[in-house]
């Protein structure tokens, strides 16, 4: 097993950081995932993916945006986040493998907005913020639907930024036994997996019918299965 390594990358938004968790054996993909606007790469879902995906031939790159590296507490405007992500891309693509662009919350929005431009193989959107809490009329669905590549959304059942039932449907979609909803349209496709009872941080209350460990397993199982379908 290869230990994690850290790389600092200069971008037009300032220095960013990548923590590499190499695939065990022959790598097939790079999964690059960044944090949200209110946290870092210590988020439970990001840590779990970095721990599990390498055993399935996926190198995981946990990305810290420049504002986070600089120690700031408030994320900058979306345009600046996109600039930082673009500046990181050559380093993420350097291993010569297909790169899945991903992130949680604000990081998921960045991945969707830039996927086609940067040549991402697919997008992983963890806790996609479909709208601000209590303001469903301010939908960000266009960013998700405009990703232009296969996309997996992993969403908490009680996420105030968008519950699974609020996500846009397509008449050709279908409900699968796994609980995933596959939605397709012209030039884009996404699959949605629900984490029962989970909030925006994919945390579940003690009274839920699922433990926190089981909730995290829903996330990692879904990503392992989906990543396997990309190669």
UniProtKB/TrEMBL annotation:
Domain of life of the organism in this record? Bacteria
Q: Give the KANL3/Tex30 alpha/beta hydrolase-like domain ranges.
A: 30-226
Where is the stretch described as Disordered? Answer: 1-20
Short name of one Pfam family for this protein? Abhydrolase_11
The record ties this protein, via InterPro entries, to: AB_hydrolase_fold, KANL3/Tex30_Abhydrolase, NSL3/Tex30
Read off the PANTHER family from this record: TESTIS DEVELOPMENT PROTEIN PRTD, TESTIS-EXPRESSED PROTEIN 30
- Protein name as catalogued: KANL3/Tex30 alpha/beta hydrolase-like domain-containing protein
């Amino acid at each position: 097993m290869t230990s994690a390594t850290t790389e600092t990358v200069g971008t037009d938004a300032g220095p960013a950081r990548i923590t590499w968790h190499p695939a065990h054996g022959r790598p097939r993909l790079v999964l690059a995932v960044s944090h949200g606007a209110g946290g870092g790469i210590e988020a439970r879902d990001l840590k779990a993916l970095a721990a599990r995906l390498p055993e399935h031939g996926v190198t995981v790159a946990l990305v810290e945006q420049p504002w986070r590296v600089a120690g700031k507490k408030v994320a900058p405007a979306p345009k600046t986040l996109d600039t930082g992500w673009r500046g990181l891309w050559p380093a993420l693509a350097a291993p010569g493998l297909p790169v899945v662009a991903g992130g949680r919350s604000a990081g998921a929005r960045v991945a969707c907005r830039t996927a086609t431009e940067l040549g991402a193989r697919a997008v992983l959107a963890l806790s996609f913020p479909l709208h601000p809490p209590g303001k469903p009329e301010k939908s960000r669905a266009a960013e998700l639907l405009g990703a232009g590549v296969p996309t997996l959304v992993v969403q908490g059942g009680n996420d105030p930024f968008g519950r699974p039932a609020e996500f846009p449907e397509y008449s050709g979609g279908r409900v699968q036994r796994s609980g995933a909803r596959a939605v397709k349209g012209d030039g884009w496709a996404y699959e949605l997996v629900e984490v029962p009872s989970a909030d925006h941080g994919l945390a579940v209350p003690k009274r839920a019918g699922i433990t926190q460990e089981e909730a995290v397993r829903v996330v990692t199982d879904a990503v392992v299965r989906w990543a396997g379908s990309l190669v």
